[in-house]
Amino acid sequence: MNARMDTQDACDLRFGQVGIANVRIRRVDAAALCDELERRVRTAPQLFSRAAVVLDLSHLLELPDDGTVDALLEAVRSAGMLPVGLAYGTSEMEALALRMGLPLIAKFRAAYEPADGGSIAPPAPPAEPVRRAEAVRSEPAPPAAAPLGAQSIDGAVRSGQQVYARDRDLVINGVVANGAEVIADGSIHIYGSLRGRAMAGAQGDEKARIYISDFRAELVAIAGHYRVFEQIPKDLEGQSVRCWLEGEKLLIAKL
């Protein structure tokens, strides 16, 4: 008798939203990087210890050589974090990622391009040629897309869950538990207790805000600027608060 063949798939492969931190390198100094990341891990070990991170080299004017990048990756590991990829950049960055055996993570490209247009930033598209006025035919402008309404969640966001509102605000009518994440490209309104993490302006919108009825957060962040529980004044705990950015500083105040 022939043995029964097992036709069940060996695995499922799916894509979803995951919480990955970005380590943007401002200067090439592996020892200083390790020291800085170790300090962050000590400040909030539950958040940063063994956290998955992407190494972002786009702020540097010149791409480091392979040995230097390997030293930076080892500094991240030594600090207690786990580098899982490189932030998307140029074709040279793609070749570097291939040599390092790491994937490129395109999610972080737009928010961290060098402000001075350095060599790592993608080149600007070529300008359209100037045409004589009589050769241009006026075409009606396409209608503007209607803005998306806020995504609303009624009920608790449980530990281990993540909610992401793409291209819109997020409204939570309930508790965000410890270990849960709520993320929005726009602002976040939580009519309940925030005990987990809230990240607004996920695609770099520095005008985004976070409003919370009962503030007990593990972390709040706007456009990549964050504050963790240990950095939050005790007199704000349990209060109704708002969070916003002034420059690169994330501020929190009672409502």
Automatic annotation (TrEMBL):
Record-annotated Septum formation inhibitor MinC C-terminal domain positions: 153-252
SUPFAM superfamilies: Cell-division inhibitor MinC, C-terminal domain
A Pfam family recorded for this sequence: MinC_C
Annotated keywords: Cell cycle, Cell division, Septation
Domain Septum formation inhibitor MinC N-terminal: 15-83
Gene3D superfamilies: 2.160.20.70, 3.30.70.260
Entry-linked InterPro entries: CAP/MinC_C, MinC, MinC_C_sf, MinC_N, Septum_form_inhib_MinC_C
UniProt GO BP: cell morphogenesis; division septum assembly; regulation of cell division; regulation of cell septum assembly
Superkingdom of source: Bacteria
Function description: Cell division inhibitor that blocks the formation of polar Z ring septums. Rapidly oscillates between the poles of the cell to destabilize FtsZ filaments that have formed before they mature into polar Z rings. Prevents FtsZ polymerization.
Family affiliation: Belongs to the MinC family.
Subunit (UniProt): Interacts with MinD and FtsZ.
PANTHER family: SEPTUM SITE-DETERMINING PROTEIN MINC (PTHR34108:SF1)
NCBIfam families, sorted: minC (TIGR01222)
Protein name listed in UniProt: Probable septum site-determining protein MinC
Species of provenance: Dyella solisilvae
Classification lineage: Bacteria, Pseudomonadati, Pseudomonadota, Gammaproteobacteria, Lysobacterales
